[in-house]
Specification:
Elements lengths: L10 H9 L5 E5 L7 H11 L4 E6 L4 H9 L4 E4 L4 H18 L2
Parallel strand pairs: 1-2, 2-3
Helix pairs in contact: 1-2, 2-3
Length: 102
């Protein structure tokens, strides 16, 4: 669909990538090694509040979803994800981020 994407495997690497200033949308799996997704979203939003966050999980993690929503996630989605729905959500998140930068 013409989007440039970069996959990382843990929160530390994701934060390094965000710090590069080269990211406008971050899709975060809430259950990952080293740091949970809610902690990553908290830290990511402090690092660069303009990055739109789409949180995803295949696990029942209501407390974590609440933390992520409170931290300003654009959307929380349950796995399995329909590819078209994820692409649409990314497009809407990018549009919202651009409107916010004006």
């Amino acid at each position: 669909v013409g989007l440039r994407a970069c996959a990382v495997l843990d929160g530390r690497t994701a934060l390094q990538r965000i710090a590069s200033g080269d990211v406008d949308v971050c899709v975060v799996d809430l259950v990952m090694p080293g740091m949970d997704g809610a902690e990553l979203v908290d830290r990511l939003k402090r690092l660069d509040a303009s990055v739109a966050v789409i949180a995803v999980s295949g696990h029942s993690v209501p407390e974590m979803l609440g933390r992520v929503a409170a931290a300003g996630a654009f959307r929380c989605m349950q796995k399995p994800l329909a590819p078209a729905e994820l692409v649409d959500t990314i497009a809407r998140a990018r549009g919202a981020a651009k409107r916010g930068r004006r």
